[in-house]
Amino acid sequence: MAVPMKLFCVLILFSLLYKGNCQCSVGNIKVSQSPTGSQVLGKTQWRVTISNNCGCSQLSILLDCVGYQTVENVDPAILNSAANVCLFNSGRPLLKSAPISFTYAWDNPYPFTPLSSTTYCG
Questions:
Q1: How far apart are CA 5 and CA 2, in angstroms?
Q2: Which biological process, per GO, is one annotated for this protein (predicted)?
């Protein structure tokens, strides 16, 4: 009887740990950027890389885009600006192992702040 109870406790512990590893939040989305060294229409070109450091996918990622400007065309499938919010990656999942990058050009870097996302741990 003691062995099945210990096994049950171990299984419960592992299930709690596994679930804990898949509880993501918008805070798990990291935005980094740096100048590429190129200019577009006299503006500095910036490379933005957005990554997910959680084991679960995150989708429907919205970024704060208040005041965002660029003189370089950005693929709307990657960054679609509407009013003051940008939909990232057309709402498709951002996997932990697959950061996505894009470039834009403006005088100064824009602080793309993640606002919200939906987590998928399936």
A1: 5
A2: cell fate determination
Domain 25-120 classified CATH 2.60.40? yes
Q: DSSP string spanning 79-94? A: EEEETTEEEEGGG--B
Q: What is the pLDDT of residues 41-84, one digit of tens each?
A: 999 999 999 999 999 999 999 999 999 999 999 999 999 998 89
How far apart (Å, rounded) are the C-alpha atoms in residues 95 and 33?
A: 19
Encoded amino acid at 11, one letter: L
What is the rounded distance in angstroms from the CA atom of residue 7 to the CA atom of residue 1? 10
pLDDT tens across 16-33, in order? 344 445 688 999 999 999
Q: So where are the chain's domains? A: 25-120
